[in-house]
Amino acid sequence: MLLKASVLKAGYVLKKDVYAKSNKPLIRSGTVLKDVHIAFLKAFLIDSAEVETKTASGQTIHAAEEKTEKAAETFDPSEMKVDSSNGNYQMAVSAYNSFFKQWQSGSGINIGEFRRAVMPLLADSLNDPIWIARFFLKRTMIRSGADRSVAMGLLSAFLGKKLSFSQGDIYQIGLAGMLADCGLAKLPPSVLNKKENDAGNERSLYERHVTDSYKMLKGVPSLTEEAMLAVIQHHEREDGSGYPLRLNGERLSRSGKILAVCDRFLHYAAACPENGWPVRILDRLIEGSYGKLSGYLLEKFCNEVMTLFIGSEVMLSDGRRGKIVFIPAKSSATRPLVRLENNQVIDLSGNKLLGIDQIVTG
Question: Domain limits at 182?
Answer without folding.
Answer: 80-306
